[in-house]
Design brief:
- The chain is an alpha/beta fold.
- Helices cover about 30% and strands about 15% of the residues.
- The protein is built from six helices and seven strands, in the order ααββααβαβαβββ.
- Strands 2-1-3-4-6-5-7 form a seven-stranded mixed β-sheet.
Amino acid sequence: MQDDRAAALVGRRRMLGLLSGGAGLVLLGGCARNRLEPLPSPWRPGTQLDAMVPRLEPYLDVTNAHTGERVALRFADRGGRHDRRAMRRLDWVFRDWRQNQSPEIDPRLYWALAAIGGAARQQGGSGQVTLLSGFRTPRTNSMLRAEGSGVASGSYHLRRRAADIRVDGLEMEQVAAYAEWLGVGGVGRYPRSSFTHIDSGPIRTWSG
C-alpha cells in the first residue's frame, strides 16, 4: 500500500488544478538489428519511487489502446524481485504493434505505473492504464515523424524507456504531477490530446 503522503499530494494537485482552471507470443525478430542499448539499472536511490518500492503493490492493469489487449497482473513479489514471465507479458502489450517487435521494457516504467495506478485507486478510480505508445522501432518512429506527430528523433520510446498513458481515476495533470514527485525521469504534458508521457531518462519536464 502506498503511503498517505502520496495520496495527499495527488489530492493537493487536484485542488490546485481546479483552482487554476491474454498475451500472444513474444516476437523478438528484428530487435537485434535496431542495436538497442543496454537498459540502465531501474533503481535510483534517493527518489520517492525507490523509497516506495518495498511497500508498493507491484500490480498493473494495462490496456493497449491500439490492439485492445489487456493484462492485469503482479509483476514482482513484495521484496521487489521481478516475475520474468509476468514482465514479458507486459513487454508484449508495450511492443511496437506495427512491427510486432517486443524487447524488454525498462522495469522502472512498470514500477512507476504501478505507483500511479495505486494512487488512482486511492482516489476512487480503477487505476487502469491506457497505453497509447510504448516501445517504437526506428521505422515506426520515422513514420510518425513524417506524419508530423511531434515525435522526437531520439525518443526514449526507441530505447524501451517511455510510455504515453492515460490513467483511470486521475486527470492528466495529476498523472504528470505524481510522476514528477516520484522522480521517474522525464514527464511530458499533452493537454490537447489528454495524455502524459513518462520515461526513465534524466529528470526533466515539458508540455506539448
